[in-house]
Amino acid sequence: MRESLVIFRRELKGYFYSPIAYVFGVLMTGVLLFLSVSTSLVQGAQASMQTFFGLLPIVCIVFLPGLTMRLWAEERKMGTLELLMTFPVRISHLVLGKFGASVAFLAFVLLMTLGLPLTLGVYGRIDWSPVLASYAASLMFAGSFVAVGMFWSSMTRDQIVAMLLSLVSLFLLYLLGYPIIIELLTGWMPAWMIDVLNGISPYKYFESIGRGVLDTRDFVYFACFCGFFLYANALVLQSRREKG
Question: Whole-prediction pTM value?
């Protein structure tokens, strides 16, 4: 795992040295906080983070493809991926290092939004249990989207193509977990197929944890979901290493 830590530190340092990462962080937190504050801090409104966490999946869909598109596509474009492939490092270590750095950066971005619940706690009573559970769910939800984005980034050297593929994939995954969409599909598909499609969506499990219900099945789902796309990512890179 030492190799993964080396890649992790390299990637995480790159985030904090890159102006794009700061722009991403400011835009993501700015949009979330602006839209949330406009409804949460009005006179007579209940002290609640529901608006914030309700908007977070959409914000992730819009912004995360811009973060993940560069993870492998930029390496290929600059020719550094071939250099990485020559190192005596397992592909799995490369993938885990990059994934861990991205999730750590997103954890830092989410940490910057803690001012909102703290402010709400000053103006009213706020239930911290579901708030903290929702933050944990948000990080796992964002991590699952990072895994999808990394996979698409490994498939192409064009960052724009990687971003568009990620955007479409993440939007479809979100829709599969949205209750209204599931209701619309009820008359078109068998019940077992709807259950399968709904079970694929990270949004379903994000909502479950966000309600403060800590079910081990939700955590197992996120681990399996991320593991599947990270494994697919590793297979793509391994095939490129074998081709030279």
Answer: 0.87
Query: What digits encode the pLDDT tens for the residues 95-147?
Result: 999 999 999 999 988 888 888 788 777 776 777 888 888 899 999 999 999 99
Distances (CA, A) of 222 to 54, 145, 242: 19, 10, 30
Residue range(s) defining the domain that contains residue 162: 2-243
Cα distance between residue 21 and residue 66, in whole Å: 10
Q: How many domains does the chain have?
A: 1
Residue with token string 């619940």: 117
Q: Which of 104, 69, 67, 57 is nearest to 205 (CA)?
A: 57
> Where do we find the tokens 């209750």?
179
In the three-class reduction of DSSP (H, G, I as helix; E, B as strand; rest coil), residue 140 is classed as helix
> Which residue in this structure is represented by tokens 């609640």?
48
Identify whether the C-beta of residue 166 lies closer than 8 Å to the C-beta of residue 68. Answer: yes
